[in-house]
Amino acid sequence: MGSSIKALFLGDVVGQPGCRAVFMELGKLIKAHNADFVIVNGENAADGFGITDQIAGDFFSNGVDVITSGNHIWQKLDDLTLLGKDSRILRPHNYPAKAPGNGFVVVEKRGFRLGVLNLIGRYNLVHVDCPFKCGMSTISKAQKESDAVVIDFHAELVDEKEALASYLDGKCACVVGTHTHIQTADERISDKGTAYISDLGMTGPSCSVIGGEPEISIYRSTTQLPEKMKVAEGDSQVNGVVVEIDVETKKAIQIYRINYVADFSS
Fold first, then answer.
1. DSSP letter assigned to residue 97
2. Lower Cβ count inside 10 Å, N or C end of the chain?
3. Which CATH architecture fits 4-205+236-259?
4. Is-contact 216 227, C-beta < 8 A?
5. pTM above 0.90, yes or no
6. Residues 6 or more apart from 154 whose CB is under 8 A from it?
7. Has residue 264 got a pLDDT over 90?
8. Among candidates 35, 2, 62, which has minimal Cα distance to 241?
9. What is the pLDDT of residues 114-152, one digit of tens each?
């Protein structure tokens, strides 16, 4: 094992265009960035809501190590089965203990044990256990079974995300935000070695409103009437970050964004 490892995170994969981008681009990304671990948020992969057994299997066969999620993970029957079948498919760890599945897993590559923790925020989302308390408790328990912990914090508000990163500063290698589908430009590393970005963005249709058909979003906004979101079509943007972690100190030493449109024309 070298002096550092790299973890590639991709933002919320939305529908068929997002899945196609993962299948077409992930191998290139792994090679281009020398990624050792790949973590992908897949809660919107199946037509915008949830994930299926087939999609999860295709993600893993294309190089994904862990699939994280959020509030939409419960919206397909497949999700409930998958959460109990494969420990690499996570639901937020701060859901009540009786909820199916778990939100923490350890994966090993090149002799390095990476703990992946999935948490969800409480503002404008769901009534769950405290992500701060859950995060601190899980990291404390994970010290013996993992060399470093990275966190996907699926939350609405930036101040809640920044607060969690500050609360866990120096105790985990990174906190990356998901959920809004809009990539932020605030990536940074604290003095204590915790990398942070408020939101990874989205891997999904680029000509869309957070992955959905613009016409439907316009209708909903101008009429205030409910209308089910439909995944937009066309080429996909690929959003995420690469976080480099020092194997000795277990601290982040680099974070940089990935943001481009995949070409589906060929």
1. T
2. C
3. 4-Layer Sandwich (3.60)
4. yes
5. yes
6. 41, 43, 68, 69, 70, 71, 92, 118, 119, 120, 121, 125, 177, 178, 179
7. no
8. 35
9. 999 999 999 988 889 999 999 999 999 998 899 999 999
How far, in Å, CA of 171 to CA of 265, rounded?
Answer: 44
The label of the residue with tokens 């299926």 reads 52
Of 76, 110, 91, residue with least CA distance to 41: 91
Using a 10 angstrom Cβ sphere, with 0-12 exposed, 13-18 middle and 19 or more buried, the burial of residue 190 is middle
Which residue has 């290698």 as its token pair?
173
Q: What is the dihedral of CA 159, 163, 164, 165, to 10 degrees?
A: 100
Which residue is listed with tokens 């601190």?
136
Q: Do the beta carbons of residue 200 and residue 176 sit within 8 Å?
A: yes
* Size (the chain), residues: 266
Cα–Cα distance, 125 to 222 (Å, whole number): 23
DSSP label of 55:
H
Any idea which residues carry the catalytic annotation? 72
Task: Provide the edge-to-edge strand list for the sheet that holds 148-154.
Answer: 104-109, 112-120, 148-154, 174-178, 195-197, 188-189
Name the residue ranges covered by the structural domains of the chain: 4-205+236-259
